[in-house]
Specification:
Blueprint (H helix, E strand, L loop, with lengths): L1 H12 L2 E4 L13 E4 L24 H40 L10 H9 L12 H27 L9 H62 L7 E5 L7 E4 L8 E9 L7 E8 L2 E9 L6 E4 L2 E4 L9 E9 L4 E6 L2 E6 L13 E4 L18 E9 L5 H8 L17 E4 L3 E4 L3 H7 L1
Antiparallel strand pairs: 1-2, 3-14, 3-16, 4-13, 4-15, 5-10, 5-14, 6-7, 6-13, 7-8, 8-9, 10-11, 11-12
Helix pairs in contact: 2-4, 2-5, 3-4
Length: 443
């Protein structure tokens, strides 16, 4: 081999080129003629190594041998470099696979677990897109792009592309990119864990607050149930309205039929000022003041029938129990007012010949501006009431006296005072009432 190279170099040094006779390919066994060519002429045939300039010393056999050894060493180094780059690519691919298989909050590998976590609506990705689906897609695209680039490099190496070595800048960039991506994923995992912890604490606090409120409500219901069960009879209870608001009130479940006369009686106790407010009101469609008993501001107690007014000579804001009765008839609009069994006033021409309309709403403790609502806190009753009864006739004065002095129990034939006919709202209460005799002692 050395001899062949030496002959080749000698031929080049003389500026000759191998050519067959008459420029044609020679058959086997033919001789070859060495023809001189000018130094600037392009030789025909395969390109040859650089030609030594005239006057250069011919390389010795040792120098040629050294050159061959150097070429062989270079080839080995290139092969080793290619092997090292393949190992680097395998390592980067392994890291990428670990990132892709990093378990999500639900324990499932890959981005699906994180996709489900973000789909719950809790966004903790900081400067990444707020939409969880965009966050997962962006990370997936980044990892897939990096993986594709690595696969392309490996494919080029396997295709025996002539790489002396993978550029250090590219290798460092890929490693840095993968490292940043891995740190970012781990950071977001830590943030998600923190957010899960905060969310759990917040949920626990909200649940505890809700449970406390429910417990208080259940306790209140239990107290009301105990209060109801403590009634010796269905009518021995009172409704308490302790505050002047527009949301504390009682409601009578039954409504009134068409009436041409009535008697309304009740026990009440109040020390509110100015005025005790509205003990009761009855409203029908088209007329909010069909029947109203009210003491508002510094005005005297008034009875309203079809929005017509009569002032009653009653005085009940001393904080003691009082028995009140009012009667009315459509004939000439006659009315009477009783306090503690005694008739204190009478009159006429209060909405004469007007029948009381049926199907309305009867409210305790509030004055209605619309049927069943639109209460005014300044007109609210403050105190306690009991034994609210309505009859469809004018009771005799003797009957009213007997009811007031506890000698008879006569429930209303239209609206009787019974527990299951009265609902309370807004914090109004129902409690056992003092006996009739105890109320008399309070007078």
């Amino acid at each position: 081999m050395l001899a062949l190279l030496a002959g080749l170099l000698l031929s080049l040094a003389s500026g000759a080129s191998w050519r067959g006779v008459r420029g044609q390919e020679s058959p086997p066994g033919s001789r070859f003629v060495c023809t001189s060519l000018p130094l600037d002429a392009a030789p025909s045939g395969c390109p040859l190594p650089p030609v030594p300039m005239q006057g250069d010393a011919l390389p010795s056999e040792e120098e040629l041998k050294a050159t061959v050894l150097q070429l062989r060493e270079t080839i080995l180094q290139q092969k080793q470099t290619i092997g090292n780059q393949r190992e680097t690519i395998r390592e980067l691919t392994s890291k990428l696979s670990r990132c892709e298989s990093f378990p999500g909050p639900d324990g499932k590998p890959g981005t699906e677990g994180w996709r489900k976590e973000f789909a719950k609506g809790k966004d903790t990705m900081g400067d990444l897109p707020r939409d969880p689906t965009q966050v997962i897609d962006q990370l997936s695209r980044t990892m897939q792009t990096l993986k594709d680039r690595l696969e392309n490099l490996e494919h080029q190496l396997r295709a025996n592309v002539s790489y002396a070595a993978l550029p250090n800048e590219l290798r460092e960039m890929l490693q840095r990119r993968l490292g940043d991506l891995e740190r970012q994923l781990l950071s977001k995992v830590a943030e998600l864990e923190d957010e899960k912890s905060l969310l759990h604490n917040e949920t626990s606090a909200h649940r505890q607050k809700t449970e406390t409120a429910l417990s208080a409500l259940l306790e209140r219901v239990s107290e009301l149930e105990k209060g109801s069960s403590a009634f010796k009879s269905p009518d021995e209870f009172k409704v308490g309205l302790p505050l002047r608001t527009n949301y504390l009130y009682g409601k009578i479940k039954k409504t009134l039929p068409e009436l041409y006369a009535f008697t309304v009686c009740l026990w009440l106790r109040s020390s509110a000022s100015p005025g005790i407010g509205t003990p009761f009101s009855y409203a029908v469609p088209g007329q909010a003041n069909e029947i109203v008993l009210i003491e508002w501001g510094n005005n005297p107690i008034e009875l309203l029938i079809n929005d017509k007014v009569a002032q009653l000579p009653l005085f009940i804001s001393d904080g003691k129990w009082h028995h009140i009765c009012v009667t009315w008839t459509t004939r000439d609009g006659m009315w009477e007012a009783f306090q503690d069994g005694e008739k204190l006033g009478t009159g006429e021409n209060l909405a004469p010949w007007h029948p009381i309309k049926p199907g309305g709403v009867l409210i305790l403790g509030q004055e209605q501006d619309t049927v069943g609502g639109r209460f005014d806190a300044t007109q609210a009753f403050v105190g306690e009431m009991s034994q609210f009864n309505i009859w469809d006739r004018v009771l005799k004065a003797e009957d009213i006296m007997n009811i007031a002095n506890c000698s008879t129990n006569m429930p209303g034939n239209i609206i009787p005072w019974v527990d299951n006919n009265v609902d309370v709202f807004g914090g109004a209460t129902k409690w056992p009432v003092e006996t009739c005799e105890e109320r008399l002692l309070d007078l």
